[in-house]
Amino acid sequence: MRCDLAVIGAGPAGLAAATRAAEAGLAVELFDEQPAPGGQIYRAIETVPAPRRALLGPDYAAGAALAAAFRASGAGYRPGALVWNVDSQLNVDFSQDGRSRQCRARAVVVATGAIERPTPLPGWTLPGVTTAGALQILLKAQGLVPAEGVVLAGSGPLLLLLAEQLTRAGAAPRAIVETVPRGRLSAAARHLPAALRAPGYLAKGLAMLRALKRAGVPFHRGAEALAIEGADHAEALSFTAGGRRQRIESRLIALHQGVVPNQQMTRLLRCEHRWSDGQRCFLPVVDDWFESSVEKVFVAGDGAGIGGAKSAALRGRLAALGALRRLGAGEDKRLAGEAAALRGALDKDGAVRPLLEALYAPSAQILAPADDTLICRCEEVTAGALRKAVALGCPGPNQAKSFLRCGMGPCQGRLCGLAVSEVIAAERGEPQQTIDYYRIRPPLKPLPLAELAAFDVGDDAGDEAGDDQDAA
Amino acid sequence: MALLARADVVVVGGGLHGCSAALHCALRGLSVVVVEKNTVARHASGVNAGGVRRLGRHPAEIPISVFSMKLWHRIAELVDDDCGFQPAPQIKVAETEAELAALSERAALVRGLGYEHEELLDQARLRELLPAVAEHCVGGLASMGDGYAVPYLTTFAFQRKARALGVRFFEETRAQELTRDGTVWRLSTDRGTVEAETLVNCGGAWANLVAARLGEPAPVEAIAPMMLVTARLPHFCDAVVGATGRPLSFKQMPNGTVVIGGGRRGVADPETDRTDLRFAELRLTARTAAEVFPVMAGATIVRGWAGIEGRMPDDIPVIGPSTTEERVFHAFGFSAHGFQLGPGVGSIMAELVATGATQAPIAPFSIGRFQGGGSLAAATAPVH
What we know:
The structure holds two protein chains of two kinds.
Chain A: E1 2-8, H1 12-23, E2 28-31, H2 50-56, H3 58-61, H4 63-72, E3 76-78, E4 81-86, E5 91-96, E6 99-110, E7 114-116, E8 129-131, H5 132-142, E9 151-155, H6 157-168, E10 175-178, H7 184-188, H8 192-195, H9 201-215, E11 219-220, E12 224-229, E13 236-241, E14 244-249, E15 253-257, E16 259-261, H10 264-268, E17 273-276, E18 281-284, E19 297-299, H11 308-326, H12 332-349, H13 353-359, H14 364-367, E20 374-376, E21 381-382, H15 383-392, H16 397-404, H17 417-428, H18 432-435, E22 447-448, H19 449-453, H20 461-471
Parallel strand pairs in A: 1-2, 1-6, 2-3, 6-19, 8-15, 9-10, 9-15, 10-11
Antiparallel strand pairs in A: 4-5, 5-6, 7-16, 12-13, 13-14, 17-18, 20-21
Chain B: E1 3-12, H1 16-27, E2 32-35, H2 44-47, E3 51-52, H3 62-72, H4 75-79, E4 86-87, E5 90-94, H5 97-112, E6 119-121, H6 123-129, E7 139-143, E8 147-148, H7 151-164, E9 168-170, E10 175-181, E11 184-189, E12 192-201, H8 208-213, E13 221-223, E14 226-230, E15 240-243, E16 249-252, E17 258-261, E18 267-269, E19 274-276, H9 279-292, E20 300-306, E21 309-311, E22 318-321, E23 328-332, H10 342-355
Helix pairs in contact in B: 1-7, 1-10, 3-10
């Protein structure tokens, strides 16, 4: 099986990239784990019932046009396909319907988006603790809302958006416990003039806050020292705010500390990454076509740095132009003209980011978890155990794997990687850039051994001939 | 260029063999510097399958492997750390009568050399030791007193103990030119020059960079043996298991995960320090594992990896003095089975450095075997 451009992920970036490239005549294959286009942000966008669509708001509904354009573009589409490896020759190994196959690509757009930042704090691994993102997916995909009042805790626009959406769905949260420290707003205010250039965001944010206030959702600001109480299940969230210790009972607590690029695929491909102080995470290095340090590997959407859904679609289109240019499939001058317009729009849409990054920077508590807090939940490694290994001489995340098995479980470090890099950097007094991140090895997600044993790499002659016909 | 360090001995390469040689030299009172281009245990030493195996060794390797095994069984006395060492039988499974006959011959050969550690297993005994083994397996060959360990922890423990004894490690420091000034070797690196009376080359896949400068090029091939690890499974296997007719090395760790290796190779790029896995090959590894242990058909692969290793054309290492220069000793090219030899060969290297000679029978491992004449029949005998 072959294609010109393999796009991985069907969120706004992937959809836009696949659409643009297919319209230009490239043989495109879009691989996505979900059964339908939309990614996390536009989850279930093609099938969502009208009332739920209204409840989720116009920003969500905007995704329908992207999905429709993709459907009309002629791009190949592989839903329910998990890409578990991309090698340096750009062979894409994927699992679909319980069978693993290989697609040889000439260029790749990684559009695997963002994941929620890990939030290690006491009790975060108890049953009954989830994330704001996970709750929002249940709402989008199944129309499910918590039966019992949820406590939303942490920081970031998603926390507020979810609170508002739940409120509109008649399942108002029991409380919002925000960890943004007092004084952060005035410190972030210097980014305000720039942020005003990005249309709509600030007005929407203020409207959200007003709606929550009207609905009477208790809002605790400046919370510190969060802890989830409970023996076998979450029972309450306790925290310090306004100078006193408080406790809110709930068996459902959703944590959130913003989102960060999902680095698994770009790390696997050994794209160069750089630490971003602003976003407090690693970002793949990309040029102004969103091409990474690895030739013909493009990174679009939030995977290239958090920019939101609008920017993701713009970046996706830009990455497609970059791929056209790389593959010699477009006239340079026309591509450059279209790209310049996209870059202008990106610049404008991204103007709100410095304000959001400064205001919603992750809380100090999760960046430096207490010694007895679990940091790697797969292998049950505490922050204290990690600090001890560093004191013994463990120089970085890859060695921590061998010392403690942290990052070696089924999640492949997705849920602990950043936290582990942060703790080691702090203990050694070195920048995160120097400490770096886990080396990521395939398969990216667990793969049944029997499926690997039957892996079809398309290496027999009949298969090959058939594929060539497909590509022609 | 600025002087980085001066010592009695400079070791090039911070893998297990470099760290072990450094530690043993330090135990003999020598001052030692180790120069490592990446970080200690970055390549094969840190990420190999961890087998601690006398079973199935090339006849020339048996004496040093037996010697090294003694050190493994009291490894904590040497490095103040148990290195995750677990004594366990190593078993080579015969899937056909022909394979069993070959193992029987092998057992006779080893006994004929005067060693008792390998014993032939009939089908009943095999099943007793490996209740989960497939029906078609007819017997095997076992070395009951072998085991396995955790590679990175082991190499790091050697480094840590060496450091405690005063060995200085220069990591992220790349050896460059090598010149001699009277009795002093001058090794330039990208961070300064190291001066020492004796040079020990433990450069693994990169060892020829030193050997070629000495005028005795060695055909080291960079290879990338691949491994897979599964999610945890209920306990079903106590031994480290290999197959006879096809590549497989297989063990269940105390936490239930299963590490599958056996020598199928990925792509190694020693220039960039990178390895690429070849899943077209690994699917064969997966098939073999499931055929030898049917329970594995329900396992889930969590991760695969490979580390860069140096392989010699005859699959046995280079150990011993340079044939062109005084005060240079080599230990490299362990061809994907050097982990078990680490403690023992380090001790032999220190003996060579300190006394100029060793009682260990290392003649078959001379680098001279690649320099035209002086072919050593023993070094190229077939391995079973």
